[in-house]
Task: inverse folding
């Protein structure tokens, strides 16, 4: 029995899952620590890692991650507050937002929080206020767009020609202008790119990071000293949603980078990473109860309680974000027989609210459970207020003295909270 099956069994024994259950989330906190260990082990120690908080901002999850020793990448005052409240050392936080206000920038300078600039207007804003903070130790970088092209999923590709992110260094004259900015502003000591996201081949990501390193080297050569000391190579390692296998691994990505951009591994620069999905996705899953089944046009349809409110991307872009499901009996036994073409549907009142469409799986019946895998990133904390459905409860799982321990780490939203959020 694999770990998820075991957790599901235990949740049924402990009556966390029963006939009243609609949908629950589980985060494997041991698995999360293991993923972070794998990340740290894959790179030499001139690399310092951060977790992209938007991927999973549950406070308990962030507390676990900060205990594992890595930092946090945040992109809004809310995420910054969450990261601080979860115990991240402020010196290990990076603030990346494409829309920082004057106040956001002042807070970063005042509290010495590292940040990356997105564009020329933001650069000039900082130039105009930096003298007010002579003691600031904030490490400031400029995000570049290496314009290497699109991955398979256009909505998460960040390095296309016309991407909204960063300074497009391939546009006429921009590379030279970037170099001049660095020579003009000696407080720019870092440079950043987040070249890919789900769907981007590793070689393409490495190519973007190669561009980052090349321009950093050129700036330092022109300056005659090493002004840029930090390279921030972003996150974006894709996750395999088709099977339980972790593929690619952090070690495989490190190997591709070693081949294409060996300078990262020499210790000349300190290197920041900002992985989100690859750290968290495979360490979470959901269980939802089948409320009803029916047949329509030859398709078996199972209506559950997990839909677009928890998995917005899967509902709206199903081809790009397919998700793996398995059915279980009400006693928690994996269903293996009698396969039929099935739509696993959610509870929302729109037709595309499907978890899985036209998949061949064992026939689901009312009160069965459906496990929905690899939902540890961009699901549990990316709630969508459709049909006034509440945020779901999430349990943290760990093994304590040989026994599986399952503890509530985020309770479900109550209906009175749903009301007050709309009032
Ligand atoms: C979203 C984001 C990340 C994390 O991306 P993943 O695909 O989850 O690894 C890292 N850096 C920046 C700037 C981001 O916007």
Result:
């Amino acid at each position: 029995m694999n770990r998820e099956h075991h957790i599901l069994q235990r949740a049924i024994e402990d009556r966390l899952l029963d006939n009243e259950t609609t949908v629950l989330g589980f985060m494997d906190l041991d698995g999360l620590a293991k993923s972070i260990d794998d990340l740290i082990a894959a790179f030499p120690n001139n690399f310092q890692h951060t977790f992209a908080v938007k991927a999973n901002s549950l406070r308990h999850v962030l507390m676990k991650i900060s205990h594992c020793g890595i930092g946090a990448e945040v992109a809004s005052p809310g995420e910054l507050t969450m990261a601080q409240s979860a115990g991240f050392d402020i010196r290990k936080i990076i603030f990346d937002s494409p829309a920082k206000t004057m106040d956001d920038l002042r807070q970063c300078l005042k509290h010495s929080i590292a940040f990356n600039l997105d564009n020329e207007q933001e650069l000039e804003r900082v130039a105009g206020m930096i003298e007010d903070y002579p003691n600031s130790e904030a490490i400031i970088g400029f995000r570049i767009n290496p314009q290497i092209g699109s991955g398979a999923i256009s909505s998460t590709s960040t390095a296309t020609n016309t991407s909204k992110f960063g300074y497009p260094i391939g546009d006429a004259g921009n590379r030279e202008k970037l170099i001049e900015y660095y020579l003009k502003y000696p407080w720019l000591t870092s440079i950043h790119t987040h070249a890919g996201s789900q769907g981007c081949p590793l070689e393409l990501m490495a190519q973007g990071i190669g561009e980052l390193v090349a321009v950093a080297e050129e700036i330092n050569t022109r300056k005659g000293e090493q002004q840029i000391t930090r390279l921030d190579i972003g996150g974006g390692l894709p996750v395999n949603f088709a099977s339980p296998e972790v593929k690619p691994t952090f070690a495989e990505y490190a190997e591709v980078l070693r081949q294409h951009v060996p300078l990262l591994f020499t210790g000349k620069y300190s290197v920041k990473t900002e992985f989100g999905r690859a750290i968290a996705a495979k360490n979470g899953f959901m269980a939802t109860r089948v409320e009803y089944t029916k047949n329509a046009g030859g398709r078996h349809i199972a209506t559950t309680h997990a839909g677009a409110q928890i998995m917005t991307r899967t509902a709206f872009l199903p081809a790009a974000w397919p998700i793996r499901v398995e059915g279980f009996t009400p006693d928690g036994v994996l269903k293996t027989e009698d396969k039929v073409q099935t739509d696993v549907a959610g509870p929302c009142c729109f037709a595309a609210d499907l978890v899985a469409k036209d998949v061949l799986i064992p026939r689901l019946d009312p009160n069965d459970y459906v496990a929905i895998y690899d939902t540890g990133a961009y699901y549990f904390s990316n709630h969508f207020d459709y049909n006034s459905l509440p945020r779901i409860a999430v349990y943290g799982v760990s093994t304590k003295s040989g026994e599986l321990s399952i503890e509530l780490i985020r309770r479900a939203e109550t209906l009175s909270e749903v009301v007050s959020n709309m009032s």
Notes: Residues 221 and 389 are 56 Å apart (CA to CA). The pocket of pyridoxal-5'-phosphate is lined by residues 52, 54-55, 73, 96, 194, 197, 234-237, 274-278 (CB under 6 Å). The chain is about 30% helix and 25% strand. Residues 202-223 form the longest helix (22 residues).
